Structure formats: structure tokens, C-alpha cells
Amino acid sequence: MRATSSIGENPRVALLLVDLQVDFLPGGSLAVAGGDEVVPLANRVASTFRNVILTQDWHPAGHVSFATSHPGRAPFEVIDLPYGPQVLWPDHCVQGTAGAAFAPGLDVPHAHMIVRKGVHAGIDSYSTFYEADRVTPTGLTGALRDRGIDHVCLMGLATDFCVAWSAVDAARHRFRTQVILDGCRAIDANGSLARAQADMAAAGVELIGLADL
Ligand code: VGL
Ligand code: ZN
After folding, report:
1. β-bridge mates for residue 114, sequence order
2. Gap from CA of 92 to ligand 2 centroid (Å)
3. Ligand 1 geometric centre to CA of 52 (Å)
4. Which pLDDT does position 2 carry in this prediction?
5. In the annotation, is 23 catalytic?
6. Which of 1, 61, 113, 160 might form a disulfide with 193, Cβ 3.0–4.6 angstroms?
7. Which residue has the least CA distance to atom 4 on ligand 1?
8. Which CATH fold topology does 13-212 show?
9. Is 19 a catalytic residue?
10. Distance between CA 58 and CA 115 in Å, rounded?
11. For a substitution probing ligand 1, which of 92, 95, 169, 193 has the most ligand atoms within 8 Å of its CB?
12. β-strand partners of 80
């Protein structure tokens, strides 16, 4: 990768660093294999972007996506909720806990916005644009448009959930949307990675690599 990025210097482009949080790193409660490898990559890429936005999974205790909130259910089972199927997760990224903090070593002092999601007790949120009911907005679309941003690049955790859902929503809102695939790591439960890649392709998301920046 070059020391400076022509993409990131463009004021109409933003880098979204998705959920680089302790609970998604090896040793965390919802560890993504290789998640720690993304942190130095994110630091390097972010240093070449003028606009950097961090997202943070940020659930209240007892959140509806936690298996512990559903007696008799185990993590990675799928249940039906009013807004659709919901994968049940181990408790993770509880507001204010050490596991919800940004990854140690994440060094992005110039990031200008943090978007917290999954904050409603009864709705999960993988996308950083909309909660999982598909209608409750986080406010990110307007924040990007207010800044004249029409192109987003995403990397982070996890490829098949928060990165993919965010990218699909961005593309649907007509942002040019690029996912830096080798800057992401996946959970890959029950075929979720293949499905996410197909969903992103169908939505017009461009899948790129670090070498393309
Ligand atoms: C995520 C599962 C549950 C993610 C968040 O960041 O991809 N996955 N909550
Ligand atoms: Zn979550």
C-alpha cells in the first residue's frame, strides 16, 4: 500500500471502521478469528483517510440478541422476533463494559464520529445505518450527507454481519460502497459468509482489497 491514498484524501469519501472492539477479538466473548489482525491494518488505512468514522456495537444488559435473554436457548441458535429471524449471541459489547471498549492498539485519533448501534433493548442492529427492524435509523445517512460524503469504504468486524449489513444499506442509499475484504474477518456461522458476499454483490457493493487503496 502507498503511504498516501488518493481515495482517502478525497473529502467526499469516508472510511467506516466497523466494530473494532475487545469482545470481537480473540479472547473476547464473541471472538472473531483473526480479529486482532485487523487493528494494525485499520490504523494504517485510517492514516490515509481524511474522514474516518468508528462504529461501536453497544447493547444494554439483557439485550434481545443475547441467548441468555431466552431461557433454554443457546448461542448461534436462530429465533423468530417480530422483525424477523434473529441469531442469538453470547452476551457481548454491553454498554460501558471492558468488552465494549475499542480494541487496544486502535490508534485513530482523527476519527470524527462514533456511531453506536444495537442500543435498543428489543432490536438488534448489525447495520450501522438501520437497526435490524430495517426502519429505525441510526442517523448515519444524514450525517454523511450533511458532510457531502457520497462514497464509503468499510473494513472491520465481522465481514458477514456488521460489515455486510452496513455495506448493503450504504449501497441502497446510493453511496458508492467499497468493502476492503482483506481488512475484515468473519464469524461464518451456518454459511453466513457466503450469504453475505452474495447479498453485497447483489446490492452493488464493490469488493476490493487493501492493495487497491
Ligand atoms: C456483530 C454479531 C452481533 C458484528 C455484532 O459486529 O458483526 N455480530 N453483534
Ligand atoms: Zn451485537
Report:
1. 54
2. 6
3. 20
4. 52
5. no
6. 160
7. 162
8. Rossmann fold (3.40.50)
9. yes
10. 9
11. 92
12. 85
Cell digits of residue 210: 487493501
- Please give the number of the atom of ligand 1 that sits closest to the Cα of 118: 9
Give a three-class secondary structure readout of the chain.
CCCCCHHHHCCCEEEEEECCEHHHCCCCCCCCCCHHHHHHHHHHHHCCCCEEEEEEECECCCCCCEHHHCCCCCCCCEEEECCEEEECECCCCECCCHHHCECCCCCCCCCCEEEEECCCCCCCCCCCCECCCCCCECCHHHHHHHCCCCEEEEEEECHHHHHHHHHHHHHHCCCEEEEEEEEEECCCCCCHHHHHHHHHHHHCCEEECHHHC
162 is catalytic: yes
Tell me which ligand sits closest to the C-alpha of residue 59: 2
pLDDT digits (tens, 9 = 90+) for 22-52: 999 999 999 999 999 999 999 999 999 999 9
Q: Nine-digit cell at 187?
A: 464469524
CA-based nearest residue to 30, from 93, 78, 79, 72: 93
Phi/psi zone of residue 191: left (φ > 0), alpha (ψ -120 to 50 degrees), beta?
left
φ, ψ (nearest 5 deg) of residue 68: -65, -15
Q: Identity (one letter) of the amino acid at 167?
A: A
The structure's pTM equals 0.95
Q: And the C-alpha cell for 66? A: 443475547
